[in-house]
From TrEMBL:
EC code(s) of this entry: 2.7.7.72
A Pfam short name: PolyA_pol
Biological processes annotated in GO: tRNA processing
Annotated family: Belongs to the tRNA nucleotidyltransferase/poly(A) polymerase family.
Enzyme class: transferase
Protein name: tRNA cytidylyltransferase
Keyword RNA-binding in record: yes
Length: 436
């Protein structure tokens, strides 16, 4: 088939062409397949490591042709060829046996025909192949037509595809989020029947798909699709339990928030509160720093939709305490979250809330400009000075003393002098030891 112009005009990494040439010279005509072909048709650039080469050559034949090869997934037909500094993944055409764990086939059969290999793939837009050496394009399942119609359609019978691999249902919604495509009706209708297979997929793989989904350009509509198909109840049951109106609101906040992981996750989870949100992120086995960041953002976050914008601090001492808890570096992110929520409100509600938010931001910025002490490291006394003044060695009392002094300084920054803090330290210590 004559290739589309996007493929004819594409420039391919030399490492990829080198691998294709060597395989072809040995009598193994090979192809670029899957996501690489799809993205080239979408005019998305690809690095050499992002191309998948499919070949009729067996893994052992591939290994015999190249000097540097890593048997990365040899049981499933995949090896990685090293060309200079580049890594090129080469996979033998294959058919697959039954899927018993909802993720991988129990057995693999190596094949000689390209179309049989493409038939095992998930969606038609991922079941296209291109040979740049002969400028030959193969699209046996009309993936290009589906792309022109902005449609995600399963290869063959959707229920069979989703029953084989539980991650495919999540991938369908994630692709919808990234591309702004809709699911073909039959493909969408098959997802609810595959939910038990989705439950078999590891938390890490589900979290990877969910993370990519929430960061995508069309995350808002895709999150609603996640709920309508029943996938939300599998991957985020606590969020699925929210009323539909609350979930619609959260999806809308996600849509307006900057595409940063902590911000988008905080937007999605703000309806369950900071502690539960942090627990959910940690339960997805995402990095601990991310779960902590989501919790911290939500503890600092004033929710205009909840009609209590006064939750943002306005008195100077309250602002300093808020800054000490939140961290000055997070102020822009908190207000990005507030701004995203403001954009979801009705015009009348937004008009009522926005002035208070603006006043709070101005007050916080003014306090930041004054550079008040906000952490124990900013105090005029450090731990050694505390031990010296008290005549005591190291112990928990040192940290307690510093936090007590910080609380005093947050109330009145003028107290952050060595003399004033020393006097307060002695008063505090006398009361503490007297109580003991």
């Amino acid at each position: 088939m004559r290739p589309p112009a996007a493929l004819e005009q594409a420039r391919f990494p030399e490492a990829i062409l080198d691998v294709l040439r060597r395989l072809s010279a040995a009598g193994h005509r090979s192809w670029l397949v899957g996501g690489a072909v799809r993205d080239l048709l979408l005019h998305r650039p690809r690095a050499a490591t992002d191309f998948d080469v499919a070949t009729p050559a067996t893994p052992r034949q591939v290994m015999a042709l190249f000097r540097r090869v890593i048997p990365t997934g040899i049981d499933h037909g995949t090896v990685t060829v090293l060309v200079g500094d580049e890594k090129v993944e080469v996979t033998t055409f294959r058919g697959e046996g039954d899927y018993v764990d909802g993720r991988r086939p129990a057995s693999v059969t190596f094949l000689a025909e390209l179309e049989a290999d493409l038939a095992r793939r998930d969606f038609t837009m991922n079941a296209m192949a291109y040979d740049p050496l002969q400028a030959d394009f193969r699209d046996p399942f009309d993936g290009r037509v589906d792309m022109s119609r902005r449609r995600i359609r399963a290869v063959g019978e959707p229920a069979a595809r989703f029953g084989e691999d539980g991650l495919r249902a999540m991938r369908a919604v994630r692709f919808a989020a990234q591309l702004g495509y809709r699911l073909d009706p039959a493909t969408r209708a098959a997802i609810p029947g595959a939910l038990e297979v989705v439950r078999k997929v590891s938390v890490e793989r589900v979290a990877e798909e969910l993370s990519r989904l929430v960061l995508a350009a069309h995350a808002g509509p895709a999150l609603l699709l996640l709920r309508r198909t029943g996938l939300l109840g599998v991957v985020l049951p606590a969020i699925a339990a929210l009323p539909l109106s609350a979930y619609r609101h959260a999806a809308s906040v996600v849509r307006h928030a900057p595409a940063e992981p902590a911000l988008r996750l905080a937007a999605l989870l703000h309806g369950v509160g900071p502690e539960e949100a942090s627990k959910i992120v940690f339960g997805l086995r995402l990095p601990r720093r991310l779960s902590d960041e989501v919790g911290t953002l939500l503890r600092a976050y004033a929710c205009p939709a909840a009609r209590h914008p006064a939750a943002l601090p306005d008195a100077p001492a309250d602002i300093r305490r808020w800054l000490a808890r939140t961290g000055p570096q997070r102020v822009p992110a908190v207000f990005e979250l507030v701004s995203a929520e403001l954009r979801t409100l009705s015009p009348a509600h937004r008009a009522a809330v926005a002035p208070e938010v603006s006043r709070a931001r101005a007050a916080i910025d003014a306090e930041l400009a004054a550079a008040p002490p906000l952490a124990t490291g900013d105090l005029a006394l450090d731990g050694r000075a505390v031990m010296s003044l008290l005549g005591e060695g190291p112990g928990p009392h040192v940290g307690e003393a510093l936090h007590h002094l910080l609380d005093r300084v947050l109330e009145d920054p003028a107290q952050n002098t060595r003399e004033a803090l020393a006097a307060e330290l002695r008063r505090w210590w006398a009361g503490r030891t007297g109580a003991l």
